[in-house]
Amino acid sequence: xxxxxxxxxxxxxxxxxxxxxxxxxxxxxxxxxxxxxxxxxxxxxxxxxxxxxxxxxxxxxxxxxxxxxxxxxxxxxxxxxxxxxxxxxxxxxxxxxxxxxxxxxxxxxxxxxxxxxxxxxxxxxxxxxxxxxxxxxxxxxxxxxxxxxxxxxxxxxxxxxx
Length: 162
Known about the structure:
Elements: H1 2-18, H2 23-26, E1 37-47, E2 55-64, E3 71-78, E4 81-87, E5 92-97, E6 135-142, E7 145-152, E8 154-155, E9 159-160
Parallel strand pairs: 1-8, 1-9
Antiparallel strand pairs: 1-2, 2-5, 3-4, 3-6, 4-5, 6-7
């Protein structure tokens, strides 16, 4: 009897933990309809005017009929990266850094001690969405419930900063 109880308990625990990995996929369900309207969604590459000043992509969109008491924009998923959404007076912005115009910070030397301070490569995390290059996912909370919707983006001309 005790052996049967151990088998049942062990099986229950095993099945319980096996479902943990699948729970992440169900949390990213896209909304078919949203309670506000997303407008003028676009992305723009930018490059700093000085060598090593960096570069990136900014994603912009506006929203109308948005109940700001019940809806809070959170983050934006775009091209394998995630960024927090900034609220500007007339537009929402998410900023992504790229490797364009970055100052190299890697020291390659014959002596291993001289390479001290090199940063380890970043491990890429699994991206939860399959998107085209001109698509993004907006994460937001509506009445404290996490929701997601897809944006189709237009490309704007690259901005070159002095």
